[in-house]
Amino acid sequence: MKQLIPLLILLVCFCSCSKTETYEINGVEYAVTPVDSSANYLIETKSFSGVVFNEQEKPTHDVYTFSMLMRPTEAEEVTPFTPSLENIVEAERILKRCVEVDKIGADSLRISNNAIEELPSYRRQYYGARNEKGQKLIWINCFSIESSFAHSDWKTEVVEVDDGGEWYFNIVTNIDTGECYRFFRNSIGG
To answer: What predicted TM-score, i.e. pTM, was given to this entire model?
Structure first.
């Protein structure tokens, strides 16, 4: 019995320390949980899970210098920002429309039916940046939940692979204009 008491105290502390908060937006429930040892936060719904990277976090690869965040015809500077839950909900709406309905980005890059799997089969990483016009851009890095690659640090580090095919893709959403562009799916070898 003496050994059980410390265990029960530990269990109660662990359960009461849960920092997950639940929000409902447009009838969809979102669970938001801080990621341990970082300023990032995890968003989970019935249809996807993804990590929002805080602008102060420094992943091993500086995504904010990626040309991915800029339109092909624009050479502009971007400034990091931390997307809110509402920003992510809007970015997901744009992503879904671009991939499932339009099947083309604002830059005329096509998203063919066999280019990627169904959206719920991917985890996401979200990085926010403002362009010189002040528009909010969200780079969405997607990788398959089912892939054979190990990504144990996906909540704190950029997931990057060589090849991988439909298991990995990314896209930029402009949540101020409602556009998506820079769709990129990893190649399948050679």
So the answer is: 0.80
Alpha-carbon distance 140 to 116, whole Å?
A: 14
Residues 66-124: tens digit of each pLDDT: 555 544 445 667 888 999 999 999 999 999 999 888 777 777 777 776 778 889 989 99
Q: List the structure tokens of 17.
A: 């320390």
Both structure tokens of 143: 């990788």
- Backbone torsions φ then ψ of 88, nearest 5 degrees: -70, -40
Rounded Cα distance, 177 and 186, in Å: 26
Strands 168-174 and 136-144: antiparallel
Distance, in Å, from the CA atom of 153 to the CA atom of 5, rounded to the nearest integer, reads: 34
Location of structure tokens 């671009």: 98
Which 8-state DSSP code applies to residue 70? S
Sign of the dihedral defined by the CA atoms of residues 139, 145, 150, 153, in that order: positive
Return the structure tokens found at 2. 């003496």
